[in-house]
Amino acid sequence: MLKFIIRRVLQAVLALFVLSVLLFAWLRSLPGGVVSALLGERGTPETAAQLRAQLGLDDPIFVQYWRFLQRAIQGDFGVSNGVYRGEPALDVFIQRFPATLELSIFAIALALLLAIPLGYIAARRRGGPLDTGSVIFSLVGVAVPVFFLAYVLKYIFAVKLGWLPPSGRQTVGINATHITNMYVLDGLITREWDAAWDAFKHLILPTIALASIPFAIIFRITRAAVIDVMDEDYVRTARAKGLHSRTIRVRHVMRNALIPVVTIVGLQIGALLAGAVLTEKVFVFQGIGQALAIGFELRDYPVLQVLIMMAALIYIIVNLLVDIAYAVIDPRVRTT
Amino acid sequence: MSEPNLTDTERAGQRTSTRHGLGARKKARIDSLAEAGALSEEEGVSLWRSAWRRLRRDPVFLVGLGITTVFVIIAIIAPWITPHDPSARLLIDQVTPATPIPEPQPGFPLGGDNAGRDLLSRLIAGSRQTLIVGVLATLGGLLGGMILGTIAGGIGGAADTAVMRVVDVMLSIPSLLMAFSIAALFASPSQWTVILAIAIIQVPIFARLLRGSMMAQRHSDHVLAARALGVRRPAIVFRHMLPNSIGPVIVQGTLVLAVSIIDAAALSFLGLGNPNDAIPEWGQMLGKAQVFFNTYPHIAVYPALCIIVVALGFTLMGESLREALDPKSRR
Question: pLDDT at position B24, please?
Fold first, then answer.
C-alpha cells in the first residue's frame, strides 16, 4: 500500500514537472514575447527594461526556468493587466476560487444525485423504454455545447419566466457578511438565511448547466457497472442464499458498482474546470472560470498563467487523492 | 456475455479496477480501442465484413450514418444550393439600432443576421467550413499522434518510455483548457489557430491509440512472418502494422470529429475563434450570436441545432462502429 502511494505521488510530481515546463514554454511563446505580453499596455521602456532584468531574459534558458520555478513557488506571478489592473495575479485566483468551488460542489452533487439512481434503474430495466430513453438522452447531452445549454436555461427560467436571477452570485446590495466567500455557506454560518437563499437561487441555473457534463458520463458508468455486477457470481450466490433483495441491492450490487464511479468523479474535475469557464461566462458568475474567460478575451497573461497553473494543479492533486482513495477501497488496484 | 450497448467510457470505467495512475480511465478507454484492431484474424470472416453485417441492422449506426451523409453532401454542394450569397448584406436596410436582427420574411425564411446577411444561406454555407474545421483538426491530431505513436510503438525501448511519459502528462491536463491556452498564444486568431489548438489536444489520444495497436500486433503472426522473411523494421511498421491500426483510428476519428466541432464553438464563444466571418462556420456563428441571445435567441439556436445534430450523428456512428469492431462484444 505504501509502495503504491509513493509511486503514485512520484507520478504526480513528474506530471507537475512536465506541467511547469509546458507552462514555461507557453509563457515564452506568448505573442510579442514575454515582456510585452506580461506588461500589456502599461509597458514603458523603463518598466520593460526592469521586467527584462527581473526575468533575466539574457541568462541561459535553464537559469530562467529555475527562476520561474522559484517565483511560482513564492506565489509571484506578476500583476494583472486586464480588468483587475494592478492586482497581483495570485490574488485574483484566491478571491475567486471559493465561488467556483461552491459551484463545482453543487454541480457534482446534482450530477451524482441524478445519475446514480437513474443509472441503476436503467440497468435494472435494461432494454426498456426508460433505459433506451436515458441512454439517448445522455448521448444528446454530450453533443450539446455547454454554453448553449446555459444560455437556453437562462433564457427560459430567467429572461422569459423570471423565476431565477439571470446573472451574478448574489443580489447586489443584499445584507450579507462574507467569511469564506462561498456565499451559501457564509449565509448559513452567519445565520443570514435571506442571503444564503438568495445565493442559492443564483447558483441553480449555473449548477444545472455545469452538471450536464459529469451527469452523462456518471450515468453511463453507473449503468454499465450495475449491469456488470448483476451478472457476478456473488450476486447470484446472495440471491440463492435467500437474502432480502434490498440487502443484495445495497450491499452487493451498489457497493461494487460504485467503485468505477469514484474514479470518474475525480477525472470529471478537469472537464468541470473547462466547463466552468463557459458556464460562468454566461451567468456572469464571478469565479475563476469567468476570470479565465475574461483573461482569454483581454489576453491578460499574468492572470491566465496563474489560473491555468492552479487549475492543472488542482486537477492533478484531486486525481492523486482519488487514486489513493480508490486503492483503499479496492485492494486489486495496488497490485498493478 | 458482454453487454452489446457498452461504449468506450463505460467499458473503460470497468477496467480501471485493474489499471491506475494519472488519467487511468482516459488511458484505459484508448487502450481497449487499440486492442480491438489487432485481434481479428482467427475468424473466418474479415473484420470489416463481420462489422458491416452487424452495422447493417443497427438502427443507431444507420441514424448516425444518415445524419453524417446528409451533412457531408450539403457541405459539398453548399455553394450551389444557398438561396442567396451568404456574405451579401441584402437586408442591411432593415438593420437598425432598434431592430438589429432582420425578421423572417418572404425569400428569407429564417431572417437575417446582424449584418443583414441571409441566415439560411449562411447556415448552408457554414456546413462546409464546419466540416473543414472538424476534418482538418482531426487529421492534424491524427498526423501528430501517428508520428508519436509510430516512434513509441515502432521503435520501442527508451523512445517509447520518453514519448509515452509526455503523452500521459498531456492526457492528464484538462483538454479543453489546454485548447483555450494554445489558442490564446496567437496574437491574431484565425481559422487556422482554432484548427491547430483542437488538433494538438487530440495528439496524445491518437498517439496512445496507435502505440497500443502496434504493441498488440508486435507478436501477431503476420508481423512474425514478415520479420522471419527478413523484412526491415521500417517496412514492417509502415506496411504491416500501420494499415492494421486503421479500424480503431477510424472509430476514434469519428468521435473526435464531433468533439472538434463542439470545441471550435467553445473557442469562438470565448473570442478565441476566427474573427473574420466572411466564410461562415457554425461554431463562429453561435459564438457571435451570444450577444443577441436574450433578445433574438433564434440566431443562436439555428447554428446550435446544426452543431448538436451533426455532433450527435458522428457520435452515434462512432459508438456503434466501436462496438461492431470490438471482438469482445461480438458473437
Answer: 61
DSSP labels, A145-158: -HHHHHHHHIIIII
What ipTM was estimated for this complex? 0.82
- Report d(CA A102, CA A42) in Å as an integer: 34
Closest Cα in chain B to A275: B176
All residues of chain A having their beta carbon less than 8 Å from the beta carbon of residue B13 are 221, 224-225, 260-261, 263-264
> Which of A46-55, A145-154, A193-202, B190-199 is predicted least confidently?
A46-55
pLDDT exceeds cutoff 60 at B7:
no
3-state DSSP assignment of residue B38: helix
Residue in B with minimal Cα distance to A219: B10
Residue of chain B nearest A335, judged by CA positions? B18
* Predicted local distance difference test score (pLDDT) of residue B76: 92
Q: How far apart are CA B30 and CA B209, in angstroms?
A: 6
Write down the pTM of the prediction.
0.82
Cell of B7: 461504449
Mutate to test the interface with A, among B8, B14, B31, B309 (most CBs of A within 10 A): B14
**Helix, strand, coil share of chain A (percent; to 5):** 80, 0, 20
Whole-angstrom Cα Rg for chain B = 22
Closest CB to B19 among A223, A261, A336: A336
For the cut 70, the answer to whether the pLDDT of residue A32 exceeds it is: no
**Nearest residue, CB atoms, A263 vs list B24, B186, B300:** B24
Predicted pLDDT of residue B15: 41
Query: What pLDDT, on a 0 to 100 scale, did the predictor assign at position B2?
Result: 36
The answer to whether the CB of B207 falls within 8 A of the CB of B153 is no
**Helix pair B298-325, B47-55: axis angle to 10 deg:** 130
Tell me whether residues B22 and A316 touch, CB distance under 8 A.
Answer: yes
